[in-house]
Amino acid sequence: MIGRIAGVIVYKGDDHVLIDVRGVGYVVYCTDRVLASLGRAGEAAALFTDMLVREDLLQLFGFPSLVEKEWFRLLLSVQGVGAKASLAILSAVGADGVSRAIALGDWNTIKAAKGIGPKTAQRVVNELRDKAPAVMAMGAGIEAGAASAAKVDASDADHVIDPVPSPAATAVQMSASAQAEALSALGNLGYAPGEAAGAVAQAAGEAPEADTAGLIRAALKLLAPKG
């Protein structure tokens, strides 16, 4: 099993990238978001990967973080959702968007992905609702690992300059970390994983730049008894 690719970009296609790792070229299928975030030919790239193996097919799929990779694997577990559909969902809303949509039961967001109908979108939300909190809780440690993995050692390829995370990527990592910490705090306060995930997801959607403390306060307000 190949879990990570780090090397030099040879070329980028419409749905994949060819990465040279010490003379061996790996074709890695990615979402539009991931392809757009990668550099040009000759520049360094590092992706977490998941391998799909069938009798007549062997494909690698690449992701910028282990959280997104985990969502890809979970989406594949939904009846009627294959690799193409999973990538379409992640491409449309990203890992954070999938997490928030499932936690909130918002299947319309999932339906926005290309080729995803309402029945499939509802099935995704219903089948993965109980698993969303666990993936959200992966946040802090996982995102730190993703940032570290984005650096390519000189031993991986000659004359490679370590890619510098973009401000947008850094913001996403901070948001995921804050959500994970807020979710953990609510769990420690006795809230059920499902309701805590929904509240954190809604709070993060209303205030994307909120830190952990801000998310906790906002989530507690949402969870407070009404009336």
UniProtKB/TrEMBL annotation:
Domain topic, free-text comment: Has three domains with a flexible linker between the domains II and III and assumes an 'L' shape. Domain III is highly mobile and contacts RuvB.
Domain annotation Helix-hairpin-helix DNA-binding motif class: ranges: 73-92, 108-127
Protein name: Holliday junction branch migration complex subunit RuvA
Superkingdom of origin: Bacteria
Family annotation (InterPro entries): DNA_helicase_Holl-junc_RuvA_I (IPR013849), Hlx-hairpin-Hlx_DNA-bd_motif (IPR003583), NA-bd_OB-fold (IPR012340), RuvA (IPR000085), RuvA_2-like (IPR010994), RuvA_C (IPR011114), RuvA_C_sf (IPR036267)
Principal location: cytoplasm
Protein family: Belongs to the RuvA family.
GO biological process terms, semicolon-separated: DNA recombination; DNA repair
Annotated stretches, region: Domain III: 176-227
GO molecular function: ATP binding; four-way junction DNA binding; four-way junction helicase activity; hydrolase activity
Keyword ATP-binding attributed: yes
GO cellular component, one term: cytoplasm
SUPFAM superfamilies per UniProt: DNA helicase RuvA subunit, C-terminal domain, Nucleic acid-binding proteins, RuvA domain 2-like
Compartments, record wording: Cytoplasm
Quaternary structure note: Homotetramer. Forms an RuvA(8)-RuvB(12)-Holliday junction (HJ) complex. HJ DNA is sandwiched between 2 RuvA tetramers; dsDNA enters through RuvA and exits via RuvB. An RuvB hexamer assembles on each DNA strand where it exits the tetramer. Each RuvB hexamer is contacted by two RuvA subunits (via domain III) on 2 adjacent RuvB subunits; this complex drives branch migration. In the full resolvosome a probable DNA-RuvA(4)-RuvB(12)-RuvC(2) complex forms which resolves the HJ.
Keyword terms: ATP-binding, Cytoplasm, DNA damage, DNA recombination, DNA repair, DNA-binding, Helicase, Hydrolase, Nucleotide-binding
Lineage of the species this protein comes from: Bacteria, Pseudomonadati, Pseudomonadota, Alphaproteobacteria, Rhodobacterales
Function: The RuvA-RuvB-RuvC complex processes Holliday junction (HJ) DNA during genetic recombination and DNA repair, while the RuvA-RuvB complex plays an important role in the rescue of blocked DNA replication forks via replication fork reversal (RFR). RuvA specifically binds to HJ cruciform DNA, conferring on it an open structure. The RuvB hexamer acts as an ATP-dependent pump, pulling dsDNA into and through the RuvAB complex. HJ branch migration allows RuvC to scan DNA until it finds its consensus sequence, where it cleaves and resolves the cruciform DNA.
Region (Domain I): 1-64
Pfam families with a match to the protein in the record: HHH_5 (PF14520), RuvA_C (PF07499), RuvA_N (PF01330)
